């Protein structure tokens, strides 16, 4: 059944409409102002960083030409033969790719251990000693502030070419990144078990072992897996500075204009990283669901 909608008298309706229109006008002006400021900042940033759109559009064709050059010539008539020719050095590339995964694994494991040792000292709710907490936090900040590729360059100079430089670089950067995340996880735990152990006279190690660890372990494992994903990609470019892995062979192929080798190595890296991402993502989701059930 239709119902009549009552309207306000004109003298009451007019100021309400005026206020609504004024508010809508102010919101439009604010939106336009934000868009204009964003555009101005965009142009200023591009100018300061020497980003030239004219050059980009003039030379974008070079990018397309390079993609065409590295694309292998594969025919249906000789499909397997063309694939075999494309991956003519498959065994060597596979060994280097495994070396890259091992660099990422060792870097993540060592970084995890370092972060695990420091995160409890860096957390505000478990460490009452402000000086120790300050030193631990600044050290972790230093480790994650310096890019891992810079650490790799330093270690290559110190220890020579090879995977060890890549492992050490990834381990230090991983320790800084995971240490901060772990400390934040600890600072969000339920403090009732901590207060209970303190009330019974438990020391700091007993508080960490029996009150904090059971609550944070799933979160730690989830962040460590995420970091392993990142380190697999990072280990791929460590070879650019001589720190081992498939990156070194990839750089040689680019510099030597071995076009089909570039695409072959690139496809191997992409498939490996995607597989690692899918596997670790599934594990992380399972860990998160276990954490929610607890």
Brief write-up:
With 294 residues, this protein is mainly α. It has helices at residues 10-48, 53-70, 79-86, 90-122, 130-145, 148-159, 163-187, 192-199, 204-238, 246-255, 259-293. The chain is extended.
Instruction: Kindly state the percentage of residues in helix.
Output: over 70%
Q: Look at the helices and sheets and give the structural class.
A: mainly alpha
What number is the mean pLDDT? 88
Question: Distance between termini?
Answer: 53 Å
Shape: extended
Radius of gyration: 28 Å
Number of strands: 0
Low-pLDDT regions: none
Beta strand %? under 5%
Number of helices: 11
What does the main sheet amount to? none
Q: H/E order of the elements?
A: HHHHHHHHHHH
Give an overview of the whole structure:
- The chain has 294 residues and is an all-alpha fold.
- Helices cover 81% and strands 0% of the residues.
- Helix 8 crosses helix 9 and helix 10 packs antiparallel against helix 11.
List the helices and strands and how they pair.
Elements lengths: L9 H39 L4 H18 L8 H8 L3 H33 L7 H16 L2 H12 L3 H25 L4 H8 L4 H35 L7 H10 L3 H35 L1
Helix pairs in contact: 4-5, 4-7, 4-9, 5-7, 6-7, 7-9, 8-9, 9-11, 10-11
